[in-house]
Amino acid sequence: MARDVAVAHPARGLIRRVPGWWLAELIALASGCLHEASQTCRDGSLCPVGLVCVDTANTTAGSRICAAGPCGNGRLDPGEACDDGNNRSGDGCPADCTRPCGDGVQDPGEACDDGNHDDGDGCSADCHVLEGGLRVSPPSVTVDATEGDPLPAAIEVTAQFAYVGDSLLVGYAPGVVQPTWLSITSGPSTATTAAFELHIGDTAPPGERATSVRLTIRHASSTGLETFDLPVRYRVAPSDLAVHATPDSAAFIVAEGDIALPSRQVSVDFNGDGVAPIAAPSWLTVTGSPAPVNPASFTLAVNDGSFAAGTMLSGDVVFATPRGSLQRRASVHIDYRVVAPEALAIAAAPASLTFTAVTGAAAPPPQSVDLTFTGASVVLVSAPPWLTVSAPASPASPATYTASVNTTGFAGGTTQSGELVFGTARDGVEETLAIPVAYDVRFAPEIQFVGPYLGLAGRGGTLYVRGRGLDTGHPVTIRIGDTTYDPVTPDNDTVVTLSYPALPEGRYPVTLVDPPGIVSTSPELVIVTPPRFTYQAIASAGPRTRIVYDAERQAIYGVNPYDQQIDHFVYESGSWAARPPLIIPRVTDAAMATDGRALIVLDRVTINDMSLTDGRFVAVPRAAFPPSPSDCELFSQATVANDGEVLVHTRISDAVPEYWSCTAYFYNMLDHSLRSIESFDGGLSGATGDGSRIYAGGETGGEYRVYDMLTATGSVSDNTGGAFRPVSASREGSRVLVGNSVFDRSLHWFGDLPFHSQDAVLVSQDARRAYGYFDDDAGGHIEVYDLTVDIESGGVYPMINAITTADKANRFPHHTIRMIGSPDDSTLFIIGETMLLVVPVP
Questions:
Q1: What is the pLDDT of residues 707-729, one digit of tens each?
Q2: With 0-12 CB in 10 A as exposed, 13-18 as middle and 19+ as buried, what is 144?
Q3: Cβ atoms of 714 and 707 closer than 8 Å
Q4: 503 in Cβ contact with 456 (< 8 Å)
Q5: Is the pLDDT of residue 137 over 60?
Q6: Sequence-ordered list of residues with C-beta below 8 angstroms from that of 174, at least 6 positions apart, any chain
Q7: Would you call 14 helix, strand, or coil by DSSP?
Q8: What is the DSSP letter of 152?
Q9: Which pLDDT band holds residue 132 (cuts at 50, 70, 90)?
Q10: Distance in angstroms (rounded) separating the CA atoms of residues 736 and 686
Q11: 779, containing H or E segment
């Protein structure tokens, strides 16, 4: 009796069990003409004897497969696992009537199907479990629209469950306010997938909005819940619809009883579907062409001279241009003054002038001043030296003067101010009028830093481009490597936010293409491939108060104030090893610089930077401890932001109690200046992984401070009074640990970790996990907590894993331990007074 044997299916690249009589017949015919007993498919593949080539209607690779002749007749014949009357895969019975699981096509009831029956390769052997958990496609959503355009199309999001029979609930996480611009509708679902749609509700106003949608998965086989926060970003670019009136103000002076009433012309530039006045004061008549073309001319004429002397009226003429449902408006402000027949008066429009220019660049456009007066003439009495004023050929009322800035040599970030003084006279009597003038000198556009400067190969990310002079009133063009991003609207004068795609390992210069900017610090986005570290324990004596991981160079720095050195470890040839320490007298702290090119090193009285690019590791003094009216006299801790600012805490002398109210400073990495801010009692701080926020507080309690480095603003958390502990924050700050308490990015309290030590705690960069380390006689212990679960306010997050290490970071319990993670969340680095532990984590 023939036995079943395995035969390869050339058209599918798979191996199937087939009846032995098929192979016996194939062997019997092999000595003859094979092509007469076999069947060649149209794609050139060959089906063995007894099998026929069938069309699977694009339900398999190549849309062809070899099947037994009876397959597809709707009857269960010998050798068939199923037969549903067709040769289609994906409907519960494969096109060749074999077992559904393992055919490479996902069928109803299967969570996955990778074409085999192996565990551990992403799909379980029985096709019921999607190994690696929930998959959401797309994993993030970005929608772009233009102001006033039709609403964008709905975005479909699909969740592929890890287990058959799971169900999905879509909403918002606690603390996330439901946005008015976004709505959610449910979509089709199966035993293994569920879909929903995101709908954008408006295309105004312009700007960027962001939220996150919470996906909650209920497992059919357990009571546990799984969550996934889907980032949603909505960007509305401003429409180019515009209207502008010149001049934007006018002044009329009328003598009581005058019959001849004044008028003047206004020019209106527009690019919409026409332009028309839509509002005006009752004492003013506006006339123009019924079918205006750009630019349109309108006449503004006073129509009522009956007001008594001393009357002062004002109002606005409003012009509008439409395009579809969008409308833009421009106003001309009108002042109307009635004087006695013989009164001497002078009025100006506009009533003030403001110029803006970039230092060292072209001068701003000239501006006009219209003067109405009742004297015999008008003269310029005085003007600031940085203004040149041109008089009309015949200064009769109304007279137009032109003011022009004659220099852009002032320093960026400064404002000049002065007055234009005009006078009019009659019969020896003079009347003057002062017009305030402001001249704002902006910084030249410049990119100084990018943050976070380090990215991971194969993963896209968000990049904050930091600089000054970026908000020019127009979109800018930025290049990352060879990729140009255009147009990009700056968030403000110092920030442009970009999303970059998955990139290979390498260095990517970030440059400002338009407008051309200053090239100073040459910032780069550095993409690295994280090594897959194995467990290792490196003996190294000495208590460390800070650990810094340099993912670009695969180095670790441990700050050891007691031995006045920074301990140095490097990863080479597949293992970590200690290098000679870096001797820094009176060292107190160190942190990675914004651009990753140096360490910011604090000693007791100096802020230094230590280059990491030249191999010399020399601390260069940059700023000395400032004069202090208190006894605070040493720098104690540094926290670096993505704009090159470093929050530096200070402390009291060792001769008096440790906790004292001492001033904190922002240190600027570029100009090495110090700017004082609040005072803290035993100040501590920490930053988000992207450097966009810094959290600070005092070890004796008091207010918790949040510094938003993207907007240069500070705020006070509603959680105050408790002692501030070492801070760990996720990449974007959605989870922040202060000791063992869990907060959101605004420091609103969520709950706690059930962990007894508040020093050796860490949150993962993706905000999904928290880790706590302690050691005892049995060795080192790492507890892993799930931060994705919904807990009641003030509750405790569950522990989901425990890892025991053979080695301990400390020889004795309760000594200082510091912990940091790799950017890809795959490894923990734990340092104590005896060991550096390198621990891979799942």
A1: 999 999 999 887 655 667 788 99
A2: exposed
A3: yes
A4: no
A5: yes
A6: 750, 790, 793
A7: strand
A8: P
A9: low
A10: 9
A11: strand 779-786
